[in-house]
Amino acid sequence: MPNRQKQAGNMTDYPLPYASQDLTGQVALVTGATSGLGWRFSQVLANAGAKVVVGGRRKERLDELVALIQKNGGEAAAATVDMTDSESIIGFVEAGDKAFGTPTILVNNAGIPDAQRATKMPIDLIDRVFDTNLRGPFVLATEVARRLMDAKKPGRMVNISSAAAFLYSGEGAALYSVTKAGIVRMTEALAVEWARFNINVNAIAPGAFQSEMMDGMLERVGDISKGMPRKRICDPALLDSSLLFLCSSASEAVTGTVIRADDGQNPR
């Protein structure tokens, strides 16, 4: 990822078009990689040339994903991570550093639902949702940022929020909505703080996309797609272009932005 300081009007060092999505030489960390969006994101980044460290709690699924990436010509390594445990999070970053060098891309994707009304949630579930969805991603982002600053390298961070950050139906999952709104504000705040270090922090807020979490929701409440404008649950592949844009040199001037990829499901 180039780090250029340009004078106004001087664009001679920028090729035309300046919009490469080649991630060769980059080291990416992806959490929540054992299924759903993280499973797809890991393969997309590897296909673009990044060396990918996949993280999650299920070691067998991580190993399966690494084998799949390697089969398709990519480079990957697996490291388990518990997003509720700070030591585990730091260990995950260290594992990535040991495998491929300083991580330059972070996809903060891990998250869990609450699926309950606020007054029905036991305290241990409140803690688990907060820690997994908000506290853990904050700890992980700061750990990666420290290493980038020490190495004087630019970086890209993509935090995965949700359309629920902007609209809540009132039918359960209030805390999930709160934590995903927190991810949006975290993105905006860290983008400002770290801009001078050439660390870009952005977010994607997906609507209803295929995943294990979505499968569980559909089992509980039925087919929600009937009430959507396009009457569909989106395929994770539809996020490929947004992810690659935010992880590549094409987004050099973009930081603190949230891409709302909700398929028109939520009114603005």
From TrEMBL:
Keyword tags: Oxidoreductase
A Pfam cross-reference name: adh_short
UniProt GO molecular function: oxidoreductase activity
Keyword set includes Oxidoreductase: yes
InterPro entries in alphabetical order: NAD(P)-bd_dom_sf, Sc_DH/Rdtase_CS, SDR_fam
Enzyme class: oxidoreductase
Entry-linked SUPFAM superfamilies: NAD(P)-binding Rossmann-fold domains
EC number: 1.1.1.-
PROSITE patterns linked to this entry: ADH_SHORT
Database matches in PANTHER family: 5-KETO-D-GLUCONATE 5-REDUCTASE, ALCOHOL DEHYDROGENASE, PUTATIVE (AFU_ORTHOLOGUE AFUA_3G03445)-RELATED
Assigned protein family: Belongs to the short-chain dehydrogenases/reductases (SDR) family.
Protein name: SDR family NAD(P)-dependent oxidoreductase
Native source organism of the sequence: Ponticaulis profundi
